[in-house]
Amino acid sequence: MTRLAIIAERAVDETRVAATPDTVKKFVGQGLEVVVESGAGKGAAMSDADYEAAGAKLVPDARSALSDADLLLKVRPVLADEAAALKSGACVVALLNPYGERAALEVLAARGVTAFSMEFVPRITRAQVMDALSSQANLAGYRAVIEAAEVYGRAFPMMMTAAGAIAPAKVFVMGAGVAGLQAIATARRLGAVVTATDVRPAAKEQVESLGAKFIAVEDEEFKAAETAAGYAKPMSAAYQAKQAELVGEHIKKQDIVITTALIPGRPAPRLVSEAQVLSMREGSVLVDLAVEQGGNVEGVNPGQITRLGGATVVGLMNLPGRVAADASSLYARNLQAFVALLFDKDGALAPDLEDEILKASLVARGGAICHPSLIAG
User: Fold this and answer.
1) Which candidate in 13, 141, 223, 324 could, as Cys together with 179 as Cys, close a disulfide (CB 3.0–4.6 Å)?
2) Do the two domains 3-120+323-363 and 137-317 of this chain adopt the same fold?
3) N-terminal to C-terminal alpha carbon distance within the chain
4) CATH classification code of 137-317
């Protein structure tokens, strides 16, 4: 019988868990032995009793869960002592952060583990249900607005009272990917006047469909700034200067700015300069969703809320972890769908590494790191 292990996350401020009682019940129904470390779901409001009722075996510590485990599911990268407890040949599936946590991945590889990184799941139709980056980015975009509202300390919607009117908050979202679009939608629900920008022309329609105004220099170069595959083309220095001037003037008038731009394997692009932050009005707020990769906002401090001029810059880490129950639920379903690919028709743990999803997400096998983007060429 395949033994599947779920352990508590030990990264600082990580409250999510890789399996819920619901997904455990499904794994057990498929014939797996599921072992859960006691307290693994506490941060996501999931009790040991719920896991036991779903058919899991509770054990007191991570080492007990990992002993003889054939498959380990995690949220964050595997720590060195966790890797040491795994047997050679075991499978690991997690958000391994392979670019940022290379050393942890090397430890896993040296252990002889077959490791799959959920960041590398391809964005194809068949893999949509496994897209952990999107499920977590949705909640990050939502939570960014909630954090901004808390720090802002004023109302978001316009209010008409006998004592006078309250103007709506002005929110500017930079980047209209999954997180950015959810931030737009959430700010609109709260009654803010929302604007947004993105380097992709196709984003304009998405932004406007949510009731926000699109901000960009829409010249001929911009209209041709997207490849056939949907990726942004590099823009000329002249265009970048015009766009920076437009955005700089726009930022001065905003109450809240939320930045969401990330590039896999590279530092986050700088979207807001210190001078632009200092140009903002007293009491304004910036929330930087890219802080874990260096930040989009100059002067952001990872894990901290700081003042810069009259503005407050929010650099909180792991925003999905601040909605831990829902983030865990979505992530666990992503993993459940992915894990189904690891078994053959007879129910044996035998990953078909020619499957396009498994092939794209495989990062370590046979004692070595094997993903093409992680191997120096």
Assistant:
1) 141
2) yes
3) 40
4) 3.40.50.720
Please state the CATH superfamily assignment of the domain spanning residues 3-120+323-363 in this structure: NAD(P)-binding Rossmann-like Domain (3.40.50.720)
Strands ordered across the beta sheet of 57-59 = 57-59, 33-37, 3-6, 71-73, 91-94, 114-117, 362-365, 368-369
pLDDT at 126 exceeding the cut of 70: yes
d(C-alpha 208, C-alpha 67), whole Å: 52
The CA distance from 84 to 78, in Å, is: 10
Helices 324-339 and 132-152: angle between axes, nearest 10 degrees: 170
The confidence score (pLDDT) of residue 221 equals 85
Of 122, 9, 3, the residue nearest 68 (C-alpha): 3
Judged by DSSP in three states, 89 sits in: coil
Amino acid in position 44: A
- Per-residue confidence (pLDDT) for residue 167, from 0 to 100: 94
pLDDT reading at 232 higher than 70: no
3-state secondary structure 314-352: ECCCCHHHHHHHHHHHHHHHHHHHHHHHHECCCCCECCC
Catalytic annotation, residues: 123, 128, 131, 134, 231
In angstroms, rounded to a whole number, what is the distance separating the alpha carbons of residues 234 and 269? 13
What band does 228 get if pLDDT is binned at 50, 70 and 90?
low
Q: Longest Cα pair distance anywhere in the chain, in angstroms? A: 72
Q: In the chain, what are the domain boundaries?
A: 3-120+323-363, 137-317
> Quick check: 377 pLDDT over 60?
no
Q: Is the pLDDT of residue 233 over 70?
A: no
Percent of residues, the chain, with pLDDT higher than 90: 89
